[in-house]
Write a structure and sequence with these properties.
- The protein is an alpha/beta fold.
- It has one domain.
- 22% of the residues lie in helices and 22% in strands.
- The chain is built from 2 helices and 6 strands; from the N terminus they run E-E-E-E-H-E-H-E.
- A hairpin with a 5-residue loop joins strand 2 and strand 3.
- It is globular.
């Protein structure tokens, strides 16, 4: 008989410092440790198909080993607070017209 063992969920690691750009790397603002971005794209979702953020953010962190999200829309404060509580950084893509000649 085969037994399935699920990994114990990682406890929340709230964010306490910012990442800082240092050349081609990001470094933790407090420790100076080099941080490697492991991000996933989040949304946009059709309203009827939007996933439960709390469950899915923890899944991104625990199952995928993610430490950041890339968003295409400006989120509300509650979503940003949830990301910080779970331990995920947020990168925003600001809307602008791409491929414009200056």
């Amino acid at each position: 008989m085969s037994e399935t063992v699920l990994a114990t969920p990682t406890t929340d690691r709230p964010i306490r410092s910012r990442w800082k750009a240092a050349g081609k790397f990001f470094r933790d603002g407090d420790s100076g440790e080099t941080m490697f971005v492991k991000a996933v794209t989040w949304g946009p979702f059709p309203p009827a198909e939007a996933p439960d953020p709390e469950t899915e953010l923890r899944r991104v962190r625990d199952e995928l080993g993610g430490n950041a999200l890339r968003l295409y829309e400006i989120p509300d404060r509650a979503f940003l607070d949830l990301c910080a509580q779970v331990g995920l950084r947020v990168f925003l893509t600001f809307p602008w017209t791409h491929h414009v000649d200056f």
